[in-house]
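Bumping with the actual sequence this time:
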Amino acid sequence: MEKRAFKRIDTKLPVKYYCENILYSGSVINISKNGMYILTSNLLPCSKFIDLLLPLKKEITKFHARIVRIVKINSFELKIGIMLERTPNTYSRYLDKF
C-alpha cells in the first residue's frame, strides 16, 4: 500500500540550485507533484530553503523549496529531499505527461 500523497516518478534531470547565494548543481532523481529528490556531492551550508533552476522542455523553471531531508549516501554523495513551496504551471504540465 502506497503511503505517499503523490506518486514519485524516477527521472534524471540536471538541476542548479542556490543556497546562501552560492550556486550548486546536481541531478533530480525523482519527482512528484509537491517535491523531488536531488542527488549531489555538495554539503549545503543552509538548512531550510533553496531556490532551484530546472530545465523542463525548452524553458528553465524556477522553484522555491524547503529542505525536508538530507541523506548521506556515501563519502561524496548526498540525497536532498525537498518540498516545493509553490508548484509552477510549467512543472505541473511536465508531470501531466506521466
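The C-alpha cells above came from a reply further down the thread. The radius of gyration is 13 Å.
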